[in-house]
Amino acid sequence: MYSKDALIKDLMAFGLSEKEAKVYLALLELGMAPAAAIAQTAGVKRPSAYVILDNLMKQGFVSLAQDANIQQYLATSPDIFLRLAEKRADRETGLHNRIKNLIPELKGLYKETKSKPKVRVFEGKEGLMLALGEALENNKEKVVRAFSSGENILRLVQEEIMLWIKVGAQRGIRLDAIYVENKATRLLVDMYPRIYKVVFVSKKNYISPVDMMIWGNKVGYLTINKNKITTIIIEGEEIGTVMKGMFELAFDEARKRGGKYEENLK
């Protein structure tokens, strides 16, 4: 023999709330009864009983009966739970079969990432110099792509960047850059002795305070906030490929929009 608490738990597992289960069980016991009697038997407040009974009627567990001047309610036969369970089972079986047939199609569209991108964050000049150094090491493509206003770089590491430029040129690494046109970027280009392609854009077309560099399968970001230097390096085959493509599109678009283009490929 089930206890009332066990019945309530089973009805809740089926989807009823605790109060809905109590009201339904009370109505089963009472047969046909007004809301006041149902509320008292179920142990809920009368205003709440009306709301609960309305919800149960919408779900088909309770029906309304008119008897003289008093509105009374009837519980639907418990067989309704078996019928609903069978419908749910049929629906779940159908859903399972649809998903089973869908999986091969979804797998055909799914391309698993080859490797999880690696993210490193550095504070201070050391992180910036590390990123600059890595851009010259094992650079099989021998190309470094950069977005920059030039001002942060020269203000922070002017001597180091001059050495970096010299080493890069000696190793035959080409610089492709989108620069904001100002004295700093002009100086950067003048310092780079050879092998570069640069398009200069106006400040209004480059409002980001972040400098970015792309090399191999890595992307480096330099941000400065109240003299706090943060360098972020993201490494990943897919990341590198996407960012190189975006740079090339931006470079071409900058030229089309009137950016001043200069090159030295000798």
Structure in words:
The structure is a single chain. This protein is of the alpha+beta class and 266 residues long. It has two domains: 4-76, Winged helix-like DNA-binding domain superfamily/Winged helix DNA-binding domain (Arc Repressor Mutant, subunit A, Orthogonal Bundle), CATH 1.10.10; 118-264, Endonuclease, Chain A. 52% of the residues lie in helices and 25% in strands. The protein is built from nine helices and eleven strands. It has helices at 4-14, 18-30, 35-42, 46-59, 79-109, 125-136, 151-170, 183-191, 237-256, and strands at 32-34, 62-67, 70-75, 118-123, 143-148, 174-180, 196-201, 211-215, 218-225, 228-235, 260-264. It has an eight-stranded mixed β-sheet with strand order 4-10-9-8-5-6-7-11, with helices on both faces. Strand 2 and strand 3 form a beta hairpin. Helix 1 packs across helix 2 (18-30), helix 2 (18-30) crosses helix 4 (46-59) and helix 6 (125-136) packs parallel to helix 7. The longest helix is centred in the middle third of the chain and has 31 residues, at 79-109. The chain is elongated and about 100 Å long. It starts with a helix and ends with a strand. The mean pLDDT is 83.
